[in-house]
Amino acid sequence: MTHEPGTTATTETWRPRARAVVLWSTLAATALLLTAVALVLSWRADLPDPVASHWGPDGQPDGFASLGGFVGTIVASTAGPCVLFAAIGWFRGQAAATRRIVAGATVWSGAFGAATLLMSLAPQRGLGDAAQAPGVGTALAVSLLAPLVPAAVAAFLVPADPPQAADGQVPADASRLPVADGERVVWLRRIAGGPGVGIGAATTIGMVGVTVALQMWTLLLMPLLLGVLFAAMFAFVVRVDATGLTVRSRLGWPRTHVPAAEIERASVIEVEPMRDFGGWGWRVGRGGRVGVVLRRGEALLVERSGGRSVAVTVDDAAAGAALLNTLAERSR
Amino acid sequence: MIWRIDPGSEEPLYAQLVAQVHVALAHGELKAGDRLPAARDLAESLDLNVHTVLHAYQQLRDAGVIELRRGRGAVVVQAATGDRAPLEAALAAFVAAARDAHLTTETATTLLKEAMKR
């Protein structure tokens, strides 16, 4: 019996928290963007008309637009992702981890839009002709990286889920593992690799190639950051012990912990990464399920209080599930 | 694999870990090339001193079962040796005989240990 999260009254306690995070992060992103819009509009008298709005591979401006047109394009291309993130948080924000990602991504987008406006227009102040606008390699790098700071603050401000004990007993038909009184037991597995590594490596190398071709050396920071991110996303230790389930990247982050007392039931499922989670790595999947997905096939599914659930693709998941059910029962 | 520790047992804690690796090898649950958990992780979960786990790993290394490599941790180098079917059959017979004689597990184990020393 697997129930879809969000179907009963008792699983709805996350909704106010999710709505609050969506609202304040969207407000913060909007405030950042509108402040930048107001600022660049106040520069109108100093800016060439039209302004440079696009730069070619040689670093020379090759596209021009009216100030209003350029601002409108940036606002629209910032709003799009923000709406998507808000929808994810609003409808699938059961887990604090998901709400953190939503808050961080929303604030990053707003700050990126603001930084793009400021960094591309500030150097054009006082120019008679937009064709004289300087290159934007460094401006682009700053616009991409500086927003990481407010994004990290936003993610940090999202509170962790409050403790919420599972209701009722572990179902009788859930598998168990015999454990003697006083015996200490742990199930430990490493998971690593999978198709995501190849995709991550190809993306990183591709970005290095583009950066070298354009000779925008400051942009090398982007593939560097991506490389670290991919390294963190594709090697985990999965641990089941008396404290519950812990999934931790070998770099220490990201990590998640499900206390034994919050586990409704553990079981084994088959995961199809694209269909269920839209890809590989640390994912938010259908119904708000958090996935640590490195490959297709066997996965340990942990259904948690409050309509939350975590799936981890790992071999020998049946042993982990049986031990988790036993430990969850003990914790009651 | 599942690791168990019984703090009430007379068998030293590190020896319990060593025995489980041997059993896992015998059952094919561990194969050559598999990596044992980081000593720190195992110690934390089983509420053991990390030196207890390292002691067990050193014993396994001295027995030629694992290699300890910096950065790679403990790697199994020796798979289950040979055909264990005769041993399993003899063990089943031994257990059956011990039950017929109403021996406790402790007594039967002691008998086996003494026989191994001869």
UniProtKB/TrEMBL annotation, chain A:
Q: Which UniProt key words apply to this protein? A: Membrane, Transmembrane, Transmembrane helix
State the source organism's domain of life. Bacteria
Domain DUF1648: from-to ranges: 32-70
Q: Does the keyword tRNA-binding apply?
A: no
Q: Any keyword Transmembrane helix?
A: yes
Q: Where are the transmembrane segments?
A: 21-43, 63-89, 101-122, 134-158, 191-214, 220-240
The UniProt entry, under InterPro entries, shows: DUF1648
Pfam families cross-referenced by the UniProt entry:
DUF1648 (PF07853)
- What's the protein name? DUF1648 domain-containing protein
Source organism of this protein record = Xylanimonas oleitrophica
Automatic annotation (TrEMBL), chain B:
UniProtKB keywords: DNA-binding, Transcription, Transcription regulation
Q: Per UniProt, what is one GO molecular function of this protein?
A: DNA-binding transcription factor activity
Q: Which SMART domains match?
A: HTH_GNTR
Residues spanning the membrane = none
Stretches assigned to the HTH gntR-type domain: 11-79
Query: Per its record, how is this protein called by name?
Result: GntR family transcriptional regulator
Q: Which InterPro entries match?
A: Tscrpt_reg_HTH_GntR (IPR000524), WH-like_DNA-bd_sf (IPR036388), WH_DNA-bd_sf (IPR036390)
